[in-house]
Design a protein that fits this description.
Structural class: mainly alpha
Distance between the termini: 9 Å
Number of strands: 0
Largest sheet: none
Strand content: under 5%
Helix content: over 70%
Length: 63
């Protein structure tokens, strides 16, 4: 079980980093209010944050 918890912790960290990176790209593109990519990037960021929360919940359930 400890190796599963460690693996989930590692995955959670990676997903968190991805969410931050996607948010950074979205912020850099904010200068154009008509850019359709910005909304998509925010949607992806929200999905990644949700995945991060779910991974943390699963990791806690292993304890």
């Amino acid at each position: 079980m400890d190796s599963d918890a460690a693996e989930l912790s590692s995955i959670t960290t990676v997903v968190s980093d991805l969410a931050l990176r996607v948010a950074g790209v979205a912020e850099r593109r904010q200068h154009d209010p008509d850019d359709p990519i910005v909304a998509r990037l925010h949607e992806i960021e929200r999905s990644l944050v949700t995945a991060q929360r779910r991974l943390r919940d699963v990791a806690r359930a292993l304890d």
